[in-house]
Amino acid sequence: MGRLIGIIVILVVVALQIDRCQPVTGLFSSSDGGEGKCVIKGNISLDGERIYHVPGGEWYDETRIDRMEGERWFCSEEEARRAGWRKSYE
């Protein structure tokens, strides 16, 4: 039983690390400020290209994140680029 609890604790810690740059309250718009929040949207195009959108960008408000499809939020442009995503064309 102790081992099972230990495994559960490890899984929870890993899950928290994976979600550390996920918005706390869902989808943010550019009016949400962004202080301490991850507001850069990582979107995957129909042809599989990984593109990030910054607040104020042309397609930012229309872009929705589907985590089940591998899309995600970033806390900085540098983080998005390091993960292999490119900035959207404006």
Brief overview:
With 90 residues, the chain is α+β, with helices and mostly antiparallel strands. It is built from two helices and four strands, in the order αβββαβ. It has a four-stranded mixed β-sheet with strand order 3-1-2-4.
Description of the structure:
Helix content is 26%, strand content 16%. By secondary structure, the chain is an alpha+beta fold. The chain has one domain (2-87). The chain has a 4-stranded mixed beta sheet. A hairpin with a 5-residue loop joins strand 1 and strand 2. The radius of gyration is 15 Å and the shape is elongated. The chain starts with a helix and ends with a strand. Residues 22-35 have low confidence and may be disordered.
What tags apply to this protein structure?
90 residues, alpha+beta, 26% helix, elongated
Structural class: alpha+beta
Helix/strand order: HEEEHE
Q: How much β-strand is present in the residues?
A: 15-25%
Count, helices: 2
Q: Helix amount, in percent?
A: 25-40%
List the helices and strands and how they pair.
Blueprint: H1 2-18, E1 40-44, E2 50-53, E3 72-74, H2 77-82, E4 86-87
Parallel strand pairs: 2-4
Antiparallel strand pairs: 1-2, 1-3
